[in-house]
Structure formats: structure tokens, C-alpha cells
């Protein structure tokens, strides 16, 4: 029996090739966290909400246009029913924004305010002009607005990626 220890000693952290020390690990974790915050969600909550609002707007205008054809009675107002249900669905459409609040703020910024302003103008015009033939023009404009929103955000996202790739980094929104 020998008195010498034949076992190899346990490696000391930082001695192995490619190992990182505590400072490097913290820096890498902070960098990974920063990059994960700049990554867009697969489908940002703002687009879910905006898509729902555009559909609600189009259907509300159509609903009000058709409700004008139904005779009102003392017990039932078809226009009021359409308005109330539309506003309830507008509230439901806001739920994704409340749940995924951190993603939509980074995703759209000023474009979100402009899109919502345009949507609001279309909504008001649709509610006022729903009984006229202009309702048939306003209704598809909600679809056009949504397509413009999606393509605008896609172009901005592509430009950010191109800008970040040119500098070798991920660009924050």
C-alpha cells in the first residue's frame, strides 16, 4: 500500500479550457437577458389587439348598416344592441395588451399611437355613416389599415435587423 494519492484532483473552476470566471458569467448572463428583451414576440400582443379592433370595427359598421333595416320597437333597439356588443368586444380586444404589456410597448411605439388614431377616426366615421352607402367603403378600410400596420412593422423590424447585423449586434426596439 502506498501512501500517495493516485486520484487526479478535481478541476478548479476556471482552470478548464473555455471556462469562464464569475465576472465573465455575470456579463454573459446580462448580455443574454438584454438580447432576450429586444427579441420580438412571435405575434406581438399589439397586433392581436389591433387585428381584433379592425375586425370589430368592420363588423360593427356592417352590423349598424343592417340594424338600420330592422324596425325598432319600444322594447328593442337593434342599433343599441350592435353598439353595446361592439364596445364589449373592444374591451375584450384589450386583454392581450394587459397580459403581454412588456412586449407591445417596445414593439410599436409611435406607430401604435398613429395606428390607433387612424382606427379611431375610422370607427367614428363608421358609426356616423353606417346607415349610408359610405359604410360599404369604410368597412374594407379597416382591413387595409391592418395590412398597412403589419407590413409597416415588418419593414421596421427588417430595417432594425439589417442595422444590427451591420454592426454585429442585436438592435433594441
| Overall pLDDT metric | 80
User: What coarse outline follows from CA principal-axis ratios?
Assistant: elongated
How does the helix and strand content classify structurally?
mainly alpha
How many runs of DSSP E, i.e. beta strands? 0
Q: Mind summarizing the main beta sheet?
A: none
Relative helix content: over 70%
> Spans with pLDDT under 50 lasting ≥5 residues?
none
Helical region count?
7
The secondary-structure element order is HHHHHHH
List keywords for this structure.
single chain, 173 residues, mainly alpha
Give structural notes:
The structure is a single chain. The chain has helices at 22-38, 45-67, 78-93, 95-99, 101-108, 110-129, 135-167. It is an all-alpha fold and 173 residues long. The protein starts with 21 loop residues before the first helix and ends in a 6-residue tail after the last helix.
Summarize the structure.
The chain is built from 7 helices and no strands. By secondary structure, the chain is mostly helical.
SSE layout:
Blueprint: H1 22-38, H2 45-67, H3 78-93, H4 95-99, H5 101-108, H6 110-129, H7 135-167
Helix pairs in contact: 2-3, 2-6, 2-7, 6-7
Amino acid at each position: 500500500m502506498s501512501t500517495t494519492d493516485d486520484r487526479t484532483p478535481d478541476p478548479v473552476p476556471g482552470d478548464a479550457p473555455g471556462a469562464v470566471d464569475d465576472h465573465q458569467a455575470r456579463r454573459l448572463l446580462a448580455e443574454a437577458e438584454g438580447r432576450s428583451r429586444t427579441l420580438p414576440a412571435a405575434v406581438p400582443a399589439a397586433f392581436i389587439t389591433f387585428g381584433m379592433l379592425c375586425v370589430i370595427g368592420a363588423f360593427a359598421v356592417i352590423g349598424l348598416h343592417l340594424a338600420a333595416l330592422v324596425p325598432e320597437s319600444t322594447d328593442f333597439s337593434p342599433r343599441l344592441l350592435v353598439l353595446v356588443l361592439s364596445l364589449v368586444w373592444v374591451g375584450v380586444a384589450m386583454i392581450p395588451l394587459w397580459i403581454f404589456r412588456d412586449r407591445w410597448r417596445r414593439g410599436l411605439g409611435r406607430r401604435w399611437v398613429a395606428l390607433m388614431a387612424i382606427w379611431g377616426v375610422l370607427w367614428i366615421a363608421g358609426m356616423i355613416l353606417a346607415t349610408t352607402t359610405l359604410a360599404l367603403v369604410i368597412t374594407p378600410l379597416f382591413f387595409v389599415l391592418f395590412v398597412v400596420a403589419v407590413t409597416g412593422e415588418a419593414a421596421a423590424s427588417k430595417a432594425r435587423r439589417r442595422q444590427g447585423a451591420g454592426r454585429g449586434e442585436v438592435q433594441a426596439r
